[in-house]
Structures are given as C-alpha cells and as structure tokens.
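User: quick one - fold this with coenzyme A bound?
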Amino acid sequence: MSSAAPPPASRNPADRRTFVRTTLDLGDVLLRPWGREAAEPDTTPDGHTMLDGLIAAATDPLIALWNPLATADRRDALAWLESRDGGWDRGAGASFAALTAAEGVLLGSVTLRWVDRADGLAMIGYWTVPTARGRGVATRATRGVTSWAFRTAGARRIEIAHAVGNEASCRVAHRCGYLPEGTLRDSHRFGDGAYHDEHLHARLASDPEPTGPAGEPSA
Ligand SMILES: CC(C)(COP(=O)(O)OP(=O)(O)OC[C@H]1O[C@@H](n2cnc3c(N)ncnc32)[C@H](O)[C@@H]1OP(=O)(O)O)[C@@H](O)C(=O)NCCC(=O)NCCS
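Assistant: Sure. Structure tokens for the protein plus coenzyme A:
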C-alpha cells in the first residue's frame, strides 16, 4: 500500500510562526529588539542607556500597577534583557523598545508572545514612559508590531487583556483595531496584589487595518 509523501516542512504554516529579530522603522520612532545590547553605553547622547530607561520605567506608578517590570535595579534589568534575548532566540517572544529615531531616547515597549504557537495565537502588551504618553506612541508601536506579526510571523489571532480600570490601555486597544470580546472575571493579579477583571480584545489577521489618528493630541 502506498501512502502520500508528507508535505515539505515549508508548507506547514506553523513553521513560519517564528519571530525574527527586526528593527521596525515608524519614521520618528524606531522599534528595536530588546536584548543585552540595551546595556551598551552608546544609546543616547546624554550617556544614558536603554537599560537606565528600563530601570526608571519600573518606578512609574502606572507601570508598577498595570504592567509591573522586574527591572528595579541593574542586575534585575540585565536578567530581564537576557530573557528578551532568549525569547527572540527561540522565535517565541518579540519584545521591542520604542525609541526616538533621532536621539535613541526610550519611549516605551511593546511585547508579543505566543500563547499557542502551533495555532497562531499570540498576546501583546505595551507600556510607555510618563513623558511620552498621550502622543500616540503606544498606538503607533502596537499597530506596527501587530501588522509585522501578521505579515511575517504567521500570527492568526492576537489578544490584548487589560484591567477594566485601565482606560488608557482600552483606548490603545480600540485604536489598534482590537475588538472587545468580553470581560474576564478576576483573571489577573496586578501590581497592587489584587485580582482584577480584565477586558479581552483581539484582532484577527483577516480584520481590516485600523484607520484614524494614532492618538495625536486633538486641536
Ligand atoms: C496605556 C499606555 C501604554 C498608553 O500609552 P500612550 O502612549 O499614552 O497611548 P496613546 O497616546 O497611543 O493613546 C492613549 C489613548 O489613551 C487615552 N488616555 C490616556 N490617558 C488616559 C486616561 N487616564 N484615561 C482614559 N484615557 C486615557 C488617550 O486619550 C488616547 O485615546 P484617544 O486616542 O482615543 O484619545 C500608558 O498609559 C502606560 O504605559 N500605562 C501604564 C502601563 C499600562 O497600562 N500598560 C498596558 C497594560 S494592559
């Protein structure tokens, strides 16, 4: 009895489900892969490194509440960078620093990770430093990373979950074309140590690209 030869591996969409280190150019903002090189001293004109920005970000009360970062000191921040490198190395996580293109100043971060890699299901999260907020940085960066993941990594569905009380994150999700799908009850423990209900939003690869301004201050 003859059996059909299995299809070549390259025909399997799951084989494409790898995040490949890439810098995404949004014009005045660059999305650069987080990794050990963020500790190198040449990243900004005033001598601050991305690592310094990462340590400072961890102290922001909103980040500490809604997206706690285990980067409170240099040792922890270096470990965090190493884990981002590991994610990239395995193609399992895509973590980008958002930087000003001109100066390399840290504005924020967007991170994608597979929830079910074989199934093309990923989750995305973001934060911006206080001085960068309200200018559309989170929206533009999340839109950029979302399009890249659909286009190059075989993502089929990407989810955002945010605490119900985190209205700014809800706006970012809407602005990025992530449709609301319901409320998850007591689903995640946040930086205050309490479980909060979360809104689940998701975008499918087949959904339209979002249009409209990316949160620039209105006149
Ligand atoms: C949520 C966060 C990433 C937004 O970053 P940002 O760069 O200011 O976002 P943008 O400028 O792209 O868009 C902000 C949107 O939120 C709205 N917004 C900002 N602050 C808000 C607030 N306190 N309440 C309600 N809406 C708010 C803005 O009006 C804008 O919506 P609009 O375009 O409809 O007007 C930022 O506030 C942050 O880092 N928060 C702490 C960490 C966090 O919450 N991460 C997300 C976890 S799910």
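One thing worth noting: The longest strand covers residues 106-116.
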